[in-house]
From TrEMBL:
Molecular-function annotations in GO: integrin binding
Gene Ontology biological process terms from the UniProt entry: cell adhesion mediated by integrin; cell-cell adhesion; cell-matrix adhesion; integrin-mediated signaling pathway
Domain of life: Eukaryota
GO cellular component assignments: external side of plasma membrane; integrin complex
Protein name: ITA10 protein
Amino acid sequence: PPQVSFTLELEFSCSILLDHAEVMLQATSDSTEATPEDNVVKLSVPIRYEPDLFLSSNTNLHRYEVHPLGTFTHSSGPEFTTMVKVQNFGCYPVQNVTLHMALPALGHRQATILSVTHVLADNATCVLQPPPEGTQVVPVPPEDLLHMER
């Protein structure tokens, strides 16, 4: 029997959010059929809206020299602020967004080169926690710390 394939492209309004779409397809012809009842099919398709999230960050300290060869001091370096922003540019609401950030924290000989002093959260809940049990934190190799952009 002959077959026809096609693609349906549906556009949905931002003002009315649906959880499913119903489509009815019917095939007709000028011929006489013995079983015309199987020429109609109804489909119910679940709808999932694609989020349009934008992640940005900026910091007030753009360059800081970290000595690579074990000459770290025990005193704290300069404090700097990094702001991370998650924006929804789509017209559909987004719920239960979780953002995981892993901060580079170890330098040569396991020296700590970055630590979080405090967190200011606006319209979000932030939780500071150590890496999960068994996670290996790989130190930044000295050759990477020697690189400086001019």
